[in-house]
Amino acid sequence: MSNSIKQIIDDIIRERAKGNPAIEEMTKAKLILKGIYPHRYDVNQPEIIKRLNEIRKQFKAEETVEERYYIKTAFSAKETEEDLVSDIQNQLQNEEYRKISEENRELKKEVSELKRKLEFTINELKQFNITLEEEIDQRTKREDRIRYLSYHD
To answer: Is the whole-model pTM more than 0.85?
Structure first.
């Protein structure tokens, strides 16, 4: 095998942590719970490499399950509350957040345009309804007048 056990372990930890030190420590702990000690192996042992590849597959399967929930993790080592909140907000405002915000702005624009068109249409319908009522009222008056004349003539 071309990869050393130590390199494979480091790759697994790096892939899973993605720069988050908390996840890095949790991954090391998970490996230890599975019987893989990151600092123990110096010699290539095929059975350990095979086991590491199985663990890597398990971790990737767990990642795909977790990705369905669209949960974004953020961490900060800042000391003051203001710096901490600012740092976490900056981490959360990634490209997906901007894209969602942009889509929401477009939807709001479309909704306001539809609302404007609907209000215009409602006003036209009100005017039509008033005109129709006037015509019906005039027709009724004419019919009443014709009836009156036909009976009294």
So the answer is: no
